[in-house]
Amino acid sequence: MSATNDNHPAMQSPRTWFVSWKSYSEKLSGNALDGSSSADTCYMLHVILVVIHVVLVIFYIFQWEHRMTLPLTSMNTDFWPVVLSASLQAFYTIYTAVLLFLTQRLAMSRTLARRQKLTAIHDISGAWTGLGSALSSVWQQIDIPASWWMTSAVTVYLASISVLHVTSSTLLQLQTFNTSMSTSVPTTLAWLNNLPDASDSVSVNGQNVYDVNWAAITASLLVLNQLPGVVSAGLSNTTIYDTPITNAILGNATVNATTITSRCGLLPNILYSLDNTTGQPMITGSSSVGNGTFIDFLPLNPPYQIQVIHPGISSTGEPMSEFLNFSINQTGVFFMVSTLLDIDPSVQETFGVPVPWEMNNSSGVLEVYFIQCSLSNVRADAVLDVQTNSLQNWNPVSASQSSGQWEITQWISNVWQSAISNPALASSVSSGHSFSIGGSGSEPSMADEYIMSLVGLNLTAEYVNASLLGLPVSAFVLSPDQLEAAIARVAAQLIWIAGKIGTSNGGIQPGNGMAYIDEEIIRLRLNINIIPLSFAISASVIMIALALSMTRACNVSSDSQTAIQSTGALQLLWLGHHSASVNEVLEDVEHPTEANLRGAGMIDVCFAKTISDQEELESSIDGLSGQVDHGRDDVILNWD
User: Fold this and answer.
1) Strand 201-204 and strand 560-562: pairing?
2) Is the backbone of residue 470 left (phi > 0), alpha (psi -120 to 50) or beta?
3) Maximum average pLDDT range among 71-75, 277-281, 438-442, 609-613
4) pLDDT tens digits for range 141-165
5) Which pLDDT score, from 0 to 100, does residue 333 have?
6) Distance (Å, rounded) from C-alpha 357 to C-alpha 363?
7) 530-552 and 80-113 are packed helices; what angle lies between their axes, rounded to 10 degrees?
8) What is the DSSP pairing of strand 116-117 with strand 604-606?
9) What b/e string do you get for 94-108 counting C-beta neighbours within 10 Å, with b at 16 or more?
């Protein structure tokens, strides 16, 4: 037994010391099993980290993460992004801490079990303390290269962990995106189904009175044309379309759109007579359009340029014999024009009425033509921006192609035309400009003035010239497509205005409909950022490669154990106390600088002891007792 004082043993007998060493060796054997388990756990965790990043790459490629969506609320925009970022940082911090613990433990265990320079062990151990120390250890290899590979590997491993820490909070983020959902909303119909009824009238004191104030509606055309910036929701050129009652929803709606087109042609077979007894020429005539139908013209003053007229339709074969009601069987809008027309002179007599005139010692012949423009409507679906009430990428469907040259009129009849021709254009008030040939002459209406402005004629300028110079022959050439576009636009605007002002203001009550809106809504969705993910997956692959290299590349025998498990301050004190060889080497260092100590440590050491040698040692000392052995420094240390 060893002699002891009251508190601490002064020395131990050899048997007692070896019994303690035996217990220590058994613990080392258990640690070997723990080391194998730790290695498996370490590799498995590294593989799992790589798999996680590979799975994220697959999700990114197929955008499966976008399936996770959240509504755009204040909580979802302020709370959940913070929770997601903090969770990712916490996960990577804890996960990499476990990886670092296992990898460092296994790598140092393999390092201590290998025969290598004492300085190398010092450098490698210092590198594991942090990225800054690792960079310092790599820098020290320039002066005394003890372990280039291991210190560099540790540095890259720690740098990879830092990359994971930096990218962790941005791998997954909640981002806003636009999506759509179908929603039904009530609409105001643009096409007035009761439009034909608007031509009905009652006679009051010998005058026709209409439920619709067509005079005010037609007078509004000039105002609409003079205000190009006015909001015209439901009207686009010659197209009228339904509009949602509310515009509080973002998105596009599919609505009904009606495009109005026109086809203009010359009335043939003109039979006419002129009357100059009143001091101004009066035209009376008719046009036979076939099938026993006659277009009968009341006595008319020669027009100035373009004038809407309202002939009667008879079927008796005798002009002026019987007039039908103007609002029945109307077949579009009729014009009497005195502009130039590009027609063959050989057929001019068939279409034109030459009107001689004389004024201020000058005279001439005014060619007058009668034109009929039929109206048609084509309905189609259109896409509407609900916020602006404007059509999107709208290409109207035309019922017929625009005419390139003047032809004989094509007789087209439909009921709703009657409201446009008469009473809408018939009820138009005077423009205030009177053109005369020696008398009161013709007086264009506001409708005439507006139609002339659409084809390129300025009635006010023409009136000033006529007042100064009289009634010259027109130099303006009117083409069919100009007049067709103008009358189609007028018809669309008349219908639109009548529906907008409503019955309370003398208009027509529009109907109600339903439209489906692809409502645009903003939501949150989970998004994977590929750039941070690229860095993360690269770092994880580098980490598993370095972990395998640092922990398994050292082919240490499975029956070897290390005397010390790490190189902390306590282990170094223990090593210095038990190793006479280390003491002898370090005793020669006069100044304990880093460079001097590293230079002195360039000796080969190995802290490994085989299990068989340990068992032999235990069996050979079973009978020893009573003395303290201070002379066996190499029992657990092998030095070269």
Assistant:
1) unpaired
2) left
3) 71-75
4) 888 888 899 999 999 999 999 999 9
5) 86
6) 5
7) 20
8) antiparallel
9) ebbeebeebbbbbbb
Measured torsion, CA atoms of residues 420, 426, 429, 432, in degrees rounded to the nearest 10: 110
For helices 80-113 and 148-168, what crossing angle results, to 10°? Answer: 170
Q: Is the pLDDT of residue 30 over 70?
A: no
Q: Angle 111-115-120 (CA atoms, 0-180°, nearest 5)?
A: 55
AA letter at 583: N
Pairing of strands 340-341, 477-478: parallel
Q: Which residues of 376-405 are buried (b: 16+ CB within 10 A; e: fewer)?
A: bbeeeebebebeebebeebebeebeebbee
Residue owning tokens 């370095």: 546
Q: Which of 290-294, 475-479, 481-485 has the lowest mean pLDDT?
A: 290-294
Q: What's the pLDDT at 38?
A: 83
Mean pLDDT score across all residues of the chain: 75
Integer Cα distance of 391 and 239 in angstroms? 10
Q: Are strands 239-241 and 235-236 parallel, antiparallel or unpaired?
A: antiparallel
pLDDT greater than 90 at residue 317 = no
Return the structure tokens found at 1.
């037994």
Whole-number Å distance between alpha carbons of 634 and 211: 123
Report the percentage of the chain scoring pLDDT > 90: 22
Gap between the Cα atoms of 19 and 12, Å rounded? 11
The CA distance from 536 to 163, in Å, is 7
CA distance 99 to 491: 80
| Contacts for 285 with CB less than 8 Å, ≥ 6 apart | 270, 271, 272, 273, 297, 319, 353
Quick count: other Cβ atoms within 10 Å of Cβ 538? 13
